[in-house]
Target: Cation-transporting ATPase, E1-E2 family
Amino acid sequence: MYYDQEISSVFEELRTSEKGLSPEDAEKRLEEYGKNELKEKEKVSVFRLFLSQFKSILIFILIIASVVSAALGEAIDAVVILFTVFLAGVLGFVQEYRAEKAIELLKSLTSPEAVVIRGGSEKEIPSTELVPGDVILLQTGDRIPADARIIKEFNLKVDESSLTGESVPVQKTTDALPADTAEADRKNMVYAGTAVAYGRGKAVITATGMKTSFGELAGLLGTIERSRTPLQESLDKFGRWIGAATLVIVAFVAVLGIFLGFPPLDMFLWGVALAVAAIPEALPAVVTVGLGLGVRRMVKRHALVRKLPSVETLGATNVICSDKTGTLTQNKMTVEGMYVNGKILRVTGQGYNPEGKFLKGDLEKSGSEVSADDEHLRVLLLGAALCNDSNLYKEEDVWKITGDPTEAALVVAATKAGFEKSELDRKYPRLAEIPFSSESKRMTTFNKLEDGLDSFLDSELVAFSKGAPEVILGSCTKIFLNGEVKALTPEQKQEISEIVKELADQALRVMAFSFRPLEEGFSPDKVSSGEIPAEKVEEDMVFSGLVGMRDPPREEVKAAIKTCEDAGIKTVMITGDHKITAAAIARELGILKENDLTLTGSELDSLEDKEFEDRVEKVSVYARVYPAHKLRVVEALKKKGYVVAMTGDGVNDAPALKAADMGIAMGITGTDVSKEASSMILTDDNFASIVSAVEEGRNIFKNIKNFITYGLSAHIGEVLIVLIAILGWQILPLLAVQILWINLITDGLPPMALSVEPPDRGLMRQKPRNVEQGLITRREIAAGFGLGGLIAAQALTVLAWALDSGFSTSKLQTLIFTLIVFSEMFNAFNWRSDRYSVFSLGLFTNKALVYAVLTTIILQLMVIYVPFLQFAFRTVPLSLYEWGIILALASTTLISMEIVKHISAGKER
Model:
């Protein structure tokens, strides 16, 4: 369908044209065909998600215990057990539901964009809004958003391996094909889910969503991966270890209790409750929510994490390899200088506003204005505008661009001289092109000049080239000088090379331009097909001039790089710019230090792997490199033991992004292929956002470790209290329902509140964490046993005092029950930071924790003073004196930790 029709028939059948659909027609078709997206598998219903919270074997045991209690006439115990199980299920459900919503938000934020022509104008829209009949533009690196018939192509090659398994990119055509052509051979079609490997083109959409070839298969890979994180695996392993140990102890003590005369049912219920309390089964869910909340905070800081495990990697990153353009700089290239007809000109104006002048002189001092009618200036800017895939347009009084910012700067400069890009494209149409590649470092177009332009451009077909100065100069044998085309002498080449260096020394990116009138009978089709080699066409060119442009550094980047330095993170710049230009920008930003090295791609190629590995730690700038070099840099740094973050935006960056510990794609300029290969996407393409993400990643990891240690101390404390009490005094200090309640309220709100704790003030002055170090280290285990032991000592002190005072069992259990809850609330404030005093942080700087603790305290007071809850939990009211004892003992949990932090701070100083 469509592949066997001429383009005019395709337009007719789809009721569209090369100008695309009108916005109104597109809206109607969106209602008719639906969004351009694949139907996901049926989501788990809210009810099923809730039921899934009760799959735990321990939950089953608790439910059985409640049934046994009811059968034996202990209705109250049965109801309380079921109630606590229900509340635990609600808590787990809320956590999972919030995590699910966080993932859905991330999916929506990563919806790919497509460039479409609507009503004759180019615009970028979410690919989900595409409809049959839309005309889309395709260029190297784009992920094709829907099935489409090609209507124009320039050396368009598409990687269809994801659909057909064919590893070699397919050369596309616009020709109609026979009706019996197999799908894999339909070279005038492109398919959703495949990627543009080379060249560019224009196509009209024929099918969207589930009607596409991919929609008929399993579907596209999801942009957000929900996988079990190493944190969760670590927690599961830790939970199994502590769970196994606890179950052995619980079984031993339960059997011992029966031998000591305790009722078997009580010991069974107590054993089950203590096992549930001791095993931190809620921690993986809390960790997932903590990661999800952290990821959502990252979105606000312009960093979109595609894979939750990457959050952990962020905290350990100690080298960031960053592209220069757009990441370290503003990505708003502005032409500031030109070399034409043997003279340097200064170009005024800023950004994409096409207002400015061309002044004689140099970049520091300038003289009289050069007329836009100057023939040398016209030839240079004509080539800059025609050999160009960018556009300039005005939207709501703001000048905007489509395409590459470097090319856009050339269009802006040409517009300053009165050249309108759209008018030039209409008047001098492009018949063929040799696209830019990182290997060739140049681009050449073949334009029809049927009415001629000047005496030296009187050919009907002219080739215009732009690219790296050394490449363009190497292909030139002539120069346009003083109104004539003359032979280019070695002395003139040397002079031009000196000018390139002079402009580069001033941190300008320099491009060279040339042209060549082509002989009559030259066939652009033969160039497109490869019949005439590119090298044959791109020789014997006429040099027309140089353009120097500058992309100023982002104001916030210099401070961000200093933050990285303080945090023990090395920043490395990787750019295709000239070595001198790159070094100048790197020095300005603070990346290139006095003894640091700068390597070019050719210098890198000349080094053996061992030689490079010996130098890699000293290199701060890589200039004139190909994307393929990035992979070698990543591998060398990883061999040295570094955790490497690598940025990229092109299709050729994908291998390096995958190989890096943290692949970071550009959200604005990045291709779909680079985004899919990445672990994180920068929504603003800003280096400072990487640093913010590293800080957030460190903070998430810090918070997770802190609330795990908080939970660990609670579980250890409960086990020790009951174990020692039953062995030492042959008494149960807590009832089963009380243990379950403690477990419910202490593992509920406080850990969630700790997960939103803001970063410590010194977090980015700490060295990156060691990746060899697990989540639960000796320090956390020591803190867990230390604080757990302290809580147990507090409870046993109350136990001894209560027994000496002759208190009833209910009073004794209420005292210990309440003491543990309040001690854990003091403990929650301990773990806002493992380094800084809670008083130096400010008691109310984490309001969520304050509210969580107050809520927990209110719930505990209700259990003690509300009559029907008293009856259910076997509690009795407490006197003011008893409250004083509880608060005094419980507060030592906070006081002792404050003393430890003070001593540790003194040692660090």
Q: What stands out?
A: Residues 229-301+693-908 form a domain with the Calcium-transporting ATPase, transmembrane domain fold (CATH 1.20.1110.10). The radius of gyration is 35 Å. Confidence is low (pLDDT under 50) at residues 105-111, 218-229. The first strand starts at residue 113 and ends at 118.
